[in-house]
Amino acid sequence: MPVFCKPEGVRPGLLLLPANYGQHSMTPDTDPLLQPLQIRHLSLRNRIMSTAHAPSFQEGGHPRDRYRLYHEEKARGGIALTMIGGSTNIAPDSPSVFGQLYAGDDSIIPWFQRLTDGVRSHGAAVMCQITHMGRRTAWDDGNWLPVLGPSGRRERAHRAFPKVMEMEDISRIIKDFASAAERCRQGGFDGIELLSHSHLLGQFLSPLVNTRQDDYGGSLDNRLRLTLQVLEAVREAVGPDLILGMRVTGDELAEGGLSAAECVAAAQKIAAAGAVDFLNVLAGAPYDDLGLAGWVAPMGMPAAPHLNVAGAIRAAVEVPVFHAGGVADAATARHAIREGQADMIGMTRAHMADPYLVQKLRQGQEERIRPCVALGYCVDRVNQGKPAVCGHNAATGREAVMPHVIAPAEARRKVVVIGGGPAGLEAARVAAERGHEVVLFEAGGRLGGQIALAAKGLTRRQIWGVADWLICEVERLGVDIRLNAYAEAEEVLAEEPDAVIVATGGWPEVLEIPGGSLITSSWEVLSGAARVSGSVLLLDETGDHAALVCADAMARAGCQVTLATPDRMAAHDLGPTNSAVGLRDLARQGVSVLCFQEPVSVAADGGARRVTLRHVLTGELTEQLADHVVSEHGVTPAEDLYHALKPLSRNRGQLDHRAMMAGTSPFSEANPQGRFWLARAGDAVAGRNIHAALYDALRICKDL
Fold first, then answer.
1. Closest Cα partner for 228 from 184, 285, 170?
2. Angle CA(556)–CA(690)–CA(699) in degrees, nearest 5?
3. d(Cα 61, Cα 143) in Å, to the nearest integer?
4. pLDDT of residue 25
């Protein structure tokens, strides 16, 4: 049984707060989040951790420099514990499907050692999660070995039909767990977490998956047998000194799945076996896209919905309980610790948004924490086979070349930014952090740009948090903000700038087909410039969030919406969590979808519109009658000001791409008679997304 530092008679992990707690301003000494936690010999400096996840930064299955620097930044920012290696695979028949590490051979040990040394040099503890994915992977990758499972039931998310495990498979995998754990010990970790939830160990435990009739199926004790055997083997392999925990399910929240009561019973049996030092609790059954969204929630899902699930297990066991999943803000995390729902709170995506979250709490600057607004860009990119990036923080995952903390410039300059959308706001913020005098021209009456339109739908409304944080920061930094100021070249030149950043965004792309003048743009609908009612045909060319937001807003206003796309599916470019939630909400509102359809023409038909559509595969023409036709067709850059300023600039508006890639200044002099450096960012270059706009601005301005 693990040993805790605690006063006599007090439950392990309980916070002892002053009697007058809450009667005065919060300080580091009274903030529940900033109190230490002792787990046997391991001292954790606060109650905030980054849970294991796969950012897909691995190289050859190893956590090399990019992976290491990503975790070091969180340690530098004050986190107590960072858990690396989300779904680190232990065996060749558990291949990576979203960029996981591989601890199935000794080649990973030196990379582990570099990472653990780096993280601990900043005062944080570091652990590694290991797993066998069972059926939750693909057979047609890696070594093309059959996927394994307790039974032959297929998982919809990863789509493989598993081989039913034989006793020889079970024995082999127990040894593989022990061998991988020993490699983690040699790698210098403070602890190891075994992943049960939804992976092989959890699949044996879940009646949704396990239909075996032998000693590993049927009763709870039988379904738990493999878990306990793995724990015993791992503890024997690593010895008594390494911290050992398990990420477990608190409730599958699915008909026929593990109930909360059964999960509590399983947790008690695991804790009573004596091998584990902590349990890390989450809920849900991520066996399809919507299930994954319930676990790693994007916008449109409840925030921190499973704290009570963790609390039920914490009340039932005598080991510390961690919570993984859905806590994005300090206030919620503080509540969970104060109310005894968990001893340690995972704030993983919150640290992708701001790795200096803990440092800002300690400095009394909680309001300055860059918030995670659940864009879901990080998770969805990984599930699309791409490295994770934070939709809100372009430095995350790029620590080798992009700074989280902006260094001051050697000399103060004058920087003019045109446009108050995300690119312009980030450019102004970074330039002001450098110590420059910054003037920001915004043609409209408010800042935020297209984010104001993106926040119009109910499902995605919290996206405004991106703009809100940027606006607060530029105001705090003293940027000279000029609203309702449509800047022409003369106004810019009158400021005598040293650098000009054109972030003027763009305009809705016009759909150039016969009758195109009868089409309303999604921008006109979302801004209120145009009113639509009755039946609406929404033509979506982008396959991204924009059309879903417009459809959401129109449906909630009472319209009967049909979305037509030339793609094979609606929301084609979105990853699994965002598309599942967005399309679920549209389906609930009766929005219908036509796939493989492109518009050919629009004609007036009385007071309605007759639209001819062409099937992109067969060429077959069909007609749709609607009261209104709305289109989402992307963005045309607003670039007139840029071209007017270009001949007067020192670099003729050009940026060195190789320098941008290397993280150095992208400006080089091409026009000695030029008066200022010039760059454009975001949609003023080409229509992309928020992250691209922020990344443009950061790498352009960080060395100004």
1. 170
2. 170
3. 14
4. 64
Whether the predicted pLDDT of 84 surpasses 90: yes
User: Could you give the 3-state DSSP secondary structure of residue 28?
Assistant: coil
Residue 115: name the closest of 125, 104, 105, 106 by CA.
Answer: 125
Cα separation, 292 vs 122, whole angstroms: 33
Q: Determine the Cα–Cα distance for residues 173 and 176; give it in Å rounded to an integer.
A: 5
pLDDT digits (tens, 9 = 90+) for 314-355: 999 999 999 998 899 999 999 999 999 999 999 999 999 999
Start-to-end CA distance of the chain, whole Å, equals 57
Q: What own/partner pairs with CB < 8 Å and gap ≥ 24 does 530-535 have? A: 532/559, 532/627, 532/628, 532/630, 533/557, 533/558, 533/559, 533/627, 533/628, 534/559, 534/560, 534/626, 534/627, 534/628, 535/559, 535/560, 535/561, 535/562, 535/625, 535/626, 535/627, 535/628
Q: Is the pLDDT of residue 4 over 70?
A: no
C-alpha to C-alpha distance for 662 and 664, rounded to whole angstroms: 6
Q: What is the mean pLDDT of residues 390-414?
A: 98
Model confidence at 38: pLDDT above 90: yes
Query: Which residues neighbour 226 within 8 Å (Cβ) at sequence distance 6 or greater?
Result: 170, 174, 200, 201, 204, 216
Give the pLDDT confidence score for residue 263 in this predicted structure. Answer: 98
Please state which of the ranges 13-22, 120-129, 651-660 shows the lowest mean pLDDT. 13-22
Burial of 244-278, coded b for 16+ CB within 10 Å and e otherwise, reads: bbbbbbbbbbeeebbebebbbbbbeebbeeebbbb
Q: Of 381, 353, 376, give the one whose Cα is nearest residue 298.
A: 376
635, 683 in Cβ contact below 8 A?
A: yes
Kindly indicate the confidence band of residue 195, based on its pLDDT and cuts at 50, 70 and 90: very high
What is the C-alpha separation between 175 and 170, in angstroms, rounded?
9
pLDDT at 94 over 60: yes
